[in-house]
């Protein structure tokens, strides 16, 4: 008895709360706060959100809107992060948002809330893998072009079929790495964190110093200009709204820490710390990166010229090329920094694959996905949801197939990823806002009376973010400029909700306990 009592005394606080919620510990709980923060930071990533959308956002309304847009979006992102940190502290489970929604919405609405949340999150995360693969391939395309002589010097611009090969190749590599032991993934994510911190610092400091001329502060912080002849958008207000998209796309992903809470020591405390620390680091470094790029612009109009050295396909690559070639008459420095940025995409995709697999695993564990018995299997040796990893990779690869024919694939994938991922945040936050306070069991991180106001601001901001990603981004609207996200999401979510109405509502009860099976409605 004494031995058992001594064993009970050393039970991890996160595992204890997990058991109280009706789940037994199945995944290996060995991740420290630093490793969890590294994965969360890697999922948000410093470069991967800003870099692919920087050029289009700059073109909509000029530098001032882009620069101050990051500050405004960061401010509202804190409300979302703080609301999620409070919930994470109370519910440290791998299902995270999906699990939170079920418990916070109560026994009546819990199944529907968790169903919607889980599918939104799964869609967002799997599409998120696609955004990393696409943008990573785009950076690699620019590296190859500069290495082979630039667009003006007969360099090789990868055709569509090769671009698709790179896209699928990255997806498969991430899947292979995610089938190894958790220690390998955690180690790579720690490397990713330092890669981005050190690499980001080098780019932020070096780029303005290398550029032969820099833009004045008045240009960066106050200059506003639209480009209706290119974008077709004559409304200044609409242009500003669209210029914020780069910030809204970049500043999410901090829920990755919550996906790993069943594998994190002291998750009820360390989960919230990782969420808020990730937002803080990315907010500061991201703004510095935007400022470095904007101050280093040499010729605004030349950035978009299809006859420039990067074929007008990738504005950040052209800014780097102009800076280094202007100073040293060589593109070597630009290539090195592009490789640093590409590394960020690589590590980001690896982390998002990890998070996506955890969500699919959690949903499968609760029988909320077809062939759940297959996808919820844990690898007997590595203790990771390997089948869920490969399901995510396969769907992501299918998402990339339109690259061969359609020009706006990235716009659609980005919109789907953002709406699905961020939309998933809204369900538990709304449920937390409207539930009775006496029904909420707080964890170590608790907002008290401030909880409802914080959740209200967070919920409204999420609704606004989802709405703007459904808007047309270019006029006139044609087949090659149409934002396909509303159709893609409408069809997908429509089928999911039809499944719910016709069948799933009869048997899906949300998170299923695996300790106390006689009470499977998830209510504690």
UniProtKB/TrEMBL annotation:
Lineage: Eukaryota, Viridiplantae, Streptophyta, Embryophyta, Tracheophyta
Highest taxon of the lineage: Eukaryota
UniProt keywords, alphabetically: Membrane, Transmembrane, Transmembrane helix, Transport
Membrane topology term: Multi-pass membrane protein
Pfam families: AA_permease_2
One BP term from GO: amino acid transport
PROSITE patterns: AMINO_ACID_PERMEASE_1
Location of this chain's protein in the cell: Membrane
UniProt cross-references to Gene3D superfamilies, sorted A to Z: Amino acid/polyamine transporter I
Molecular function via GO: transmembrane transporter activity
GO cellular component labels: membrane
Annotated TM spans: 33-55, 67-85, 161-181, 193-211, 231-252, 273-297, 334-363, 384-404, 410-434, 454-472, 484-502
The protein's name: Amino acid permease/ SLC12A domain-containing protein
InterPro entries: AA/rel_permease1, Amino_acid_permease_CS
Organism of derivation: Panicum hallii var. hallii
């Amino acid at each position: 008895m004494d031995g058992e009592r001594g064993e009970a005394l050393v039970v991890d606080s996160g595992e204890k709360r997990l058991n109280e919620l009706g789940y037994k510990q199945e995944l290996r709980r060995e991740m420290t706060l630093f490793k969890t923060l590294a994965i969360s930071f890697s999922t948000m990533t410093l470069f991967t959100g800003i870099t692919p959308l920087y050029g289009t956002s700059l073109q909509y309304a000029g530098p001032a809107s882009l620069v101050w847009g990051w500050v405004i979006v960061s401010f509202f992102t804190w409300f979302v992060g703080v609301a999620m940190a409070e919930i994470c502290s109370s519910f440290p489970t791998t299902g995270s948002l999906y699990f939170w929604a079920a418990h916070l919405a109560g026994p009546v609405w819990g199944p529907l809330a968790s169903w919607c949340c889980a599918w939104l999150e799964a869609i967002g995360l799997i599409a998120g893998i696609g955004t990393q693969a696409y943008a990573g391939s785009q950076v690699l395309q620019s590296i190859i072009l500069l290495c082979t002589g630039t667009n003006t010097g007969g360099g090789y611009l990868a055709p569509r079929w090769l671009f698709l090969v790179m896209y699928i190749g990255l997806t498969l590599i991430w899947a292979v790495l995610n089938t190894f032991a958790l220690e390998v993934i955690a180690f790579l994510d720690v490397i990713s964190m330092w890669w981005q911190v050190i690499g980001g610092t080098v780019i932020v400091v070096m780029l303005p110093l290398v550029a032969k001329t820099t833009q004045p502060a008045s240009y960066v912080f106050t200059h506003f200009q639209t480009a209706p002849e290119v974008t077709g958008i004559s409304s200044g207000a609409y242009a500003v709204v669209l210029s914020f998209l780069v910030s809204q796309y970049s500043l999410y992903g901090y829920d990755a820490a919550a996906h790993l809470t069943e594998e994190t020591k002291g998750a009820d405390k360390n989960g919230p710390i990782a969420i808020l620390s990730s937002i803080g680091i990315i907010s500061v470094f991201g703004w510095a990166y935007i400022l470095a790029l904007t101050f280093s612009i040499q010729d605004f109009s030349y950035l978009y010229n299809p006859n420039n050295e990067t074929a007008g396909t990738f504005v950040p690559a052209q800014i780097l090329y102009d800076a280094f070639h202007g100073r040293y008459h060589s593109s070597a420095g630009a290539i090195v920094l592009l490789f640093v940025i590409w590394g960020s995409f690589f590590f980001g995709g690896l982390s998002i694959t990890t998070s996506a697999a955890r969500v699919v695993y959690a949903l499968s564990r609760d029988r909320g996905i077809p062939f759940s018995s297959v996808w919820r299997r844990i690898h007997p040796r590595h203790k990771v949801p390997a089948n869920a990893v490969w399901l995510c990779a396969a769907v992501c690869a299918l998402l990339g197939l339109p690259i061969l024919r359609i020009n706006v694939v990235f716009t659609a994938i980005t919109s789907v990823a953002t709406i699905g991922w961020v939309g998933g945040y809204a369900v538990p936050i709304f449920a937390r806002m409207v539930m009775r306070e006496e029904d909420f069991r707080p964890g170590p991180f608790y907002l008290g009376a401030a909880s409802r106001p914080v959740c209200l601001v967070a919920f409204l901001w999420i609704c606004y973010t989802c709405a703007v990603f459904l808007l047309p981004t270019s006029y006139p609207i044609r087949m090659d400029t149409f934002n396909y996200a509303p159709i893609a999401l409408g069809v997908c979510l429509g089928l999911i909700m039809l499944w719910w109405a016709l069948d799933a509502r009869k048997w899906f009860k949300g998170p299923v306990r695996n300790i106390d099976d006689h009470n499977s409605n998830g209510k504690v």
